[in-house]
Amino acid sequence: MVFRPSSADGQSLDKQDYVQGGATQTAVKILVVGHFAVGKTTFIGSISEIEPLSTEETMTRAAAAVDDLKGVRGKTTTTVAMDFGRLTVSERVVLYLFGTPGQLRFVQMWEDMARGALGALILVDPERLADSFAVIDLIEQYGLDYAIAVNHFDGNPQRAEASLREALDLLDDTPVVTCDARDEKSSAAALTTLVRYLLDRAS
Amino acid sequence: MTAPEEFELASDGLVRAYVITKGRGLPDEQQLSLITLVTAAPDEDRRPQQLSPEEQRLLDICSAGYLSVAEIAGHTKLPLGVVRIVLAGLTEGGHLITRAPVPRARDADRRLLEEVLHGLQTKFG
Ligand SMILES: Nc1nc2c(ncn2[C@@H]2O[C@H](COP(=O)(O)OP(=O)(O)O)[C@@H](O)[C@H]2O)c(=O)[nH]1
Ligand SMILES: [Mg+2]
Fold first, then answer.
1. Ligand nearest A81 Cα, by number?
2. What is the mean pLDDT of each run of 10 residues along chain B (125 residues)?
3. B20 touches chain A (CB under 8 A)
4. What is the value of pTM for the model shown?
5. In chain A, which end has fewer C-beta atoms inside a 10 angstrom radius, N or C?
6. What is the CATH number of the domain that holds B58?
7. Confidence check on the interface: ipTM exceeds 0.90, yes or no
8. How many domains does chain B have?
9. Residue B45 included in any domain
């Protein structure tokens, strides 16, 4: 994918930026969550067909945005609350991946993201398991089915799945996969594991 | 609600849109969800309406195809709440066509999940 800054003026969107076959597409979404720097943006970028986009939720930034539009103030202090990518899976279905850290201060955003989501992939760094508790709690609170993707950073020792399951207090049937978020195929395989699991749960 | 800076900015179209629509409450969440797909309506379906620069800007972005509400916010760098309000106004004026996601239901979910699974396998084998 070629890097191109997304257009703040909206004038320079390419054909590929638009949803392919939009008039017949059904949009679905899956969440990609995890603590800070666990690899969410990398994961989404590795399988998204568009350059990942980001946005924030709050209404209170309206004034800042207006300043920005008028060019009065060069810099706005916006908090990026989520990033997302897109994958056209068929002529009928387009999949959106939404990534965000597990911070409850973005309650409205979490509600928006979780509402109607098919499920969640929770990225976990085996060296920082404790940082994942809050995210797992949130996903459970929102009643979403999830799988765990263990993002193995270079040089880290493998951690036995059993001990990881125990540390994260996972149910026996919760899938656990390892993945390298930088690798398209590896990310896709983790997502496939989640979708298979969701399909089992829906049957 | 009358902080000096808000008062000062009230002449701007975006804030006006915000102030005007606020009285009617936020747009229906399902109607303009993150993944609702939006495109410009054909000209003849549009009601005559004076568009603010921001409404015109979002309408322009929507004129070349479908984008999700989230993508519109991402491309314009506007907060989601503001984008929703402006899009709601445009929808009311008949300027936009929106395709809300199908409501969740077990059968529909299974079909959609099968299609997602198949798509992932085809694309990434
Ligand atoms: N070695 C390795 N590095 C990764 C992996 N995933 C992400 N990174 C790096 O970790 C850093 C944080 O990743 P990022 O995607 O920004 O994390 P986010 O905060 O969860 O969005 C970046 O420098 C990535 O290049 C991975 O699977 N393996
Ligand atoms: Mg990130």
1. 2
2. 38 49 54 94 86 92 96 92 91 92 86 97 93
3. no
4. 0.85
5. C
6. 1.10.10.10
7. no
8. 1
9. yes
